[in-house]
Sequence to fold (705 residues):
Amino acid sequence: MPFLDYLPALLQGARVTVELTLYSTVLGALVAFGLGIGRHSRRAWLNVPCAVIVEIFRGTSLLVQLFWIYFALPVLGELVGLNLRLEPMVAGTLALALNIGAYGAEVVRGALQAVPTEQLEAAKALDFSGRQTLWRISLPQALPEMMPSFGNLAIQNLKDTALVSLISLGDLAFRAEQIRNFTQDSTTVYTMLLLMYFGMALVLSALMSLLGRRVGAWRNA
Amino acid sequence: MTNNPAIEFKRVVKKFGDTTILNNLDLSVAQGEKVSIIGPSGSGKSTVLRILMTLEPIDDGVVYVAGRPLWHEKQGDVLVPAREAHLREMRKHMGMVFQQFNLFPHMTVRRNITEAPRHVLGLTQQHANERADEYLALVGLTEHADKFPRQLSGGQQQRVAIARALAMQPQIMLFDEPTSALDPELVGEVLQVIQNLASKDDLTLLLVTHEMQFARKISDRVCFFDKGEIVEQGAPDALFDTPQEPRTQAFLQR
Amino acid sequence: MLFDMHWNTDTHWSFAVSILPILLRGMWVTLQAAAIGFVLAALLGLVLAGLKSVRYRIIAWPARVISEFLRDTPLLIQLFFLYYVLPDYGIVLPAFMTGALALGLQYSAYTSEVYRAGIEAIPKGQYEAARALDLSNLHTFRVIVLPQAIARIIPALGNYLVSIMKDVPLLSVVSVVEMLGVAKIIGDRTFNYLIPLSMVGGLYLLMTLIAASAIRLLDRKLPAQGIPLK
Fold:
């Protein structure tokens, strides 16, 4: 049966997809918190650059960003005298992380702003510094609010990893293209592909739900 | 000890947009004095406490705490607006209990109480725990130390809030309508704790409340606030039994 | 040369200026693809929302699975699927339409949720009042539910229009000559990727900012309570 023949190669690609999703989601989370907290800050020198970065990565297409990092960045590097020729894996991870980080930043910022002012006042009354208030009082309370949106973003990231096949990274989509080119058996290959992504998305969704419940445990004590 | 008043407001003005909340307010509270502030809503009572707790800045005038300016710093002979570092230092003199308790929902009772002593005062975990135990016993909630706020009743939460503020060992305790958000049957347990505190000679206490009998019982002085100024103030019995001003009389009759 | 237009590689600046009209031609294709994709998404989403809310599980449940499936699988793969598989079954569409169809399908899952949320946001009290006044179901829907739901649905749909615009570049992989595809061709031929790709980035940013502002304007003009009926 054809689909059994395709399976090994596809699973190899799936492994790359999972790796890529993992790295880019974790890196993206760091970017999201960094930019989100920056956006939340009242200091203009922090707020404005973060806002600009967020708007750029949210307002342009991921594919454009990916191509820019993979094709255009090396050229820029030459002009400046640096070797910015990134491998597909690095370029892909970077583009995905920045993209998802920009969207995540808005989620982080929104959740931080939603922390009731009374909590901030109580913290001030106890003489916590601004930084202490942010890390000990605001963020822990904001985190459960962010989780549902983070879940959606994680799935979006998984889907977006398929784009790296276009810069020749051997992920699931790339392998599928190879098989299709070779066998012309579009229907089987693509159906398998769609089902595999669907399966991965369901697993990721379940994981994010679990994470959400752990993070919000104190709310259901 | 010094003869400085614990708190002094000198011609303090506070505005919210076009509305003047405090109008050239003069107020002086001695060390160890227990003062209750009563008056109608919007009279500026809570604002006085919030200004003291550095939650609201002032528009004019000077506020002194323990003889030092609160919202200003001395630069030579001149007073300039205070920087954050100065405010942080001054805050340690005061503790505040809010109407809505404002406990940190993601921390246990114990952690609510030990967090600031540990990370603001720099106490060790053990020392902070000892303090928590001491103040939990004071408010009668020792067995609830490992619970989360939402597992406690309103009265219990407010008592935790009092313990939390006390754990920083401030010289001045500010109570902003501490029982107004509580169901009637829970008010008593909180008032009892405040009454116990009122018996401490070295603690200055400022209480904004609608509980008139309680104010009468524990206060050295009662201030009646209306429209941003002190209309009348004096010993509790005198003020409650024989109010001099018509506005005071009108308010107490309701 | 592309679209019968030459570019000038004398200086960076002349290069940029000369490819601008070419990129704009690509942008026109981008806008068309986004528009058609959006219309398809709005219509298909309506159908999907309707099917999902049918009371018979035998219809509603598969509809919900399909919707989830469309949401959780990559647009790129859906695009490839349509592009390569449909012809095997006798359906041959121009690449542009395949692209628009893929966009429509992927986003129909999102728009169906928008419809559902918009309708569900209407408080039960409204239905109860309508029933108390003895209004028919159809009349209730037309005059009570729809005007209130639309006020919430339109801005949300507008946000997805912006998202669709950002997904149009994917169509370049099936040879639809939209803006990114154009830039890549220019880059492949001149080995200068930096200028075309940066310009495309800038143009996309401009496009999405304008669209987003237009939607915010629309959002502000739509009263929160719904379309006023006199």
About this structure: The longest strand of chain B covers residues 19-29.
